[in-house]
Amino acid sequence: MKILYINALYAPYVAGGAEISLKLIVEGMQAKGHEVAVLSMVPEPGLHVDWVDGVKVYRAGLRNGYWPFAKDRPSKFRRFLWHLRDAYNPAMRRYVREVLQQEKPTVVSCHNLVGWSISAWDEIHRAGIPIVQVLHDMYLLSPDSTLFNQEQVGLAQDLTRRLLRRRHKRESNSVKAVVGISRSVLERFITQGYFRNVRQYVVHNARDIPAINQPRLRKEGQSLTVGYIGTLSAAKGVEWLIRQFKASGIEGRLHIAGRGKEDDLAHFRQLAGNDERIHFVGYVNSSDFYATVDVLVVPSIWEEPLGMVAVEGLAANLPVIASNRGGLRETVADGVNGILCDPDRPDSLGDALITLWRDVALYNRLATGARSSIGEYLSVERMITEYERVLQTMTMDDADA
What we know:
Blueprint: E1 2-6, H1 17-31, E2 35-42, E3 47-52, E4 55-61, H2 76-86, H3 90-103, E5 107-110, H4 119-126, E6 131-135, H5 155-164, H6 168-172, E7 177-180, H7 183-191, E8 199-202, E9 224-229, H8 238-248, E10 252-257, H9 262-272, E11 278-282, H10 286-290, E12 295-298, H11 308-315, E13 320-323, E14 338-341, H12 347-358, H13 360-369, H14 380-400
């Protein structure tokens, strides 16, 4: 097969887990003998070719009002104009046409289309090439990609969202196949009427995480070091975690690692106040970070598509406290490798912290079984093989048509 992958970013530009997973998939498919190329975006204008670890990568300059992956948050009006153009951006379609003409792929695997817009679909359809759409987030449902606090938005905001996504549901029915990185994210789209009569698959992401350390078993009376690592934003539940940690009264520390918009970070620092137990450690190597904490908290308030950070924590033999949202329920099993809490019951997070601080026997049991509970997510070969089967099925169907 000759496969073109389209995503907003590609290494070394990484905004989240989608880019990490995509690089593993692309390199794995190339190692299996398939021809691969990647089309991604950069802030600089034009189209040029780059090579990343032996993979051909096209870098296309985003044609919109600003670069959405910068640290600063633009005004609401500028964001609205950006999303208005991103609802269908024909200027980005021209890049897709040029790369399709050069590469002539047999199948196109679309991932995060933010910035590209669904105009990419139309250009691929025009070329008569089958599309496999992989769902990493809610971008095709909502401009903000998270549907965070959707139930609290006003009529005007809801109408705006519907306006900006009026074509997406209809056009989703014309892709060849759809892949959810979790059952949760796929079902969210299906219940909204997307991807009707389209072949549907679930392929869980995976990471190659070596088993380095044995579980760190706790003793009675020890303090508890709590960790959070990821994007610092409201949707990720950072404010909820800070408030609950402060209210819990446990003996311990809270280490917060990651980056975010400058105004979000300022808000979280203000919320932490002068509490010397709370430390913002910035961007750090994840494996080094896991070695410094006793429990990982993934307090996402939005419907996390999968939550690979939870997998990473479990692979590091850490019990995980996670919200019962989205794909986190597919990795964190309550009472088996962690504790699930409910954002609709805010104190459930503080209760979980207190439980793992006080109940040393429970902590040790969860830590001991953490890594073995997520074996599927530690097999990159499994993930690549499953994607290969999906793409091969699409190309064979297309040949038989």
